[in-house]
Amino acid sequence: MSNMNKTMIVANWKMHLNAHEASLLVHRLDDRIKIHRDVEVVLAPSMLSLQPLSLQIDRRKFRLAAQTANEHDQGAFTGEVSFTMLHDLVHYVIIGHSERRIYFHETFEVVRDKVAAAVRNKITPILCVGETHVERKNGETKQVLHDQLVTALSNLTTEEVENVVIAYEPVWAISTFGGELAKPSQISEAVDLIRSQIRELYGERVAASVRVLYGGSVDDHTISGYLEVPGINGALVGAASLNYHKFSAIIDAAYRLHHKVKEG
Ligand code: PEP
Question: Which of 190, 200, 238, 241 has an alpha carbon 20 to 30 Å from 15's alpha carbon atom?
Answer without folding.
Answer: 190
